[in-house]
Amino acid sequence: MSSTDKKLEVRCPSCGTMHTYSTDNPYRPFCSKGCKAIDLGAWASESYRVEAKPTTEDLLDPDPAP
């Protein structure tokens, strides 16, 4: 078996199972359509977040009351 015949095995970010990473898999890097949908749902429900400290500009009221 040559080095070009080796298949890259990766862990599905959703379920954790090992599977062959291939351009033939339309759901890559996920192992299946279901795992891709689970990940999309987590993004849609804002389960994934990047925390950031608020800046002074974020704290200012854009429309102060008179």
What does it look like?
The structure is a single chain. With 66 residues, the protein is of the alpha+beta class. It contains two helices and two strands, in the order E-E-H-H. A hairpin with a 6-residue loop joins strand 1 and strand 2 (18-20).
List keywords for this structure.
24% helix, two-stranded antiparallel sheet, 66 residues, alpha+beta
Helices and strands in order:
Blueprint: E1 9-11, E2 18-20, H1 33-44, H2 56-59
Antiparallel strand pairs: 1-2
Name the overall outline.
elongated
The fraction of residues in strands falls at 5-15%
Distance between the termini: 77 Å
Could you describe the largest sheet, including whether it forms a barrel? 2 strands, antiparallel
| Rg estimate, integer Å | 21 Å
Global mean pLDDT: 85
* Secondary-structure element order, N to C: EEHH
Placed side by side, the strands forming the largest sheet appear as 1-2
> Structural class of the secondary structure composition?
alpha+beta
Unreliable stretches: none
Helix content: 10-25%
- How many β-strand runs? 2
Q: Helix count, per DSSP? A: 2
Summarize the structure.
The chain is an alpha+beta fold and 66 residues long.
